Amino acid sequence: MTDSKYYNFFNKFSFYLIVVFIFFHLLNHLFLMISINEHINFMETIRLVYRNVFIEIILILSFLFQLFITIKKLWNERQLKKTIIEKFVFFSKIYIVYFLINHIFAILIGRIIFKLDTNIYFALSGVQIKPFSYYFIIYYFFAIISLFLIVSKGKNIFLFYLINILGFIFACFLIYIFQEGFYPIKIPDEYINIYKF
């Protein structure tokens, strides 16, 4: 294959790999409706695949590759005229880039520096401990809203609104659970200690 074919192949491959990963990641969060344990059990099952060293390296490289491509596209599109919806999608992409860079970095810090299992408690600790919760509630909420808005791009008006309504419901649902809306959540001390200075 020529260089352009290798590029196009990895572009498509990395994109669809990330799509599959995000699908299972969001599906995993739905298990929170049942219990934390069900969520963690499902997570441990899918981790058998994506925590394989070889697959995890490919996944991280795929995220980095897609982030690079997206940043490049955003820079090239920054001065183009856009409709209101196109502007929403444009800024959603910027936010997702910020979120993913921050998220990947935080997970690596959690695993390498703090020696923690970066499971749901890693996320919950930030959402529940004030004043950090004021940032993390917005951080997760807009990540989901932005993701669904990007997915809805180019769809007909019915699908556009349907996808974004579902995104809003899912975002509210997740924050509600994170705030102990369904059941009390006891966060282990090792996760709480991250935010103690």
Automatic annotation (TrEMBL):
Phylogenetic classification of the source organism: Bacteria, Pseudomonadati, Campylobacterota, Epsilonproteobacteria, Campylobacterales
Listed name of the protein: Uncharacterized protein
Record keyword Transmembrane helix present: yes
Keywords from the named record: Membrane, Transmembrane, Transmembrane helix
Transmembrane segments: 15-36, 48-69, 90-114, 134-151, 158-178
Source species: Halarcobacter mediterraneus
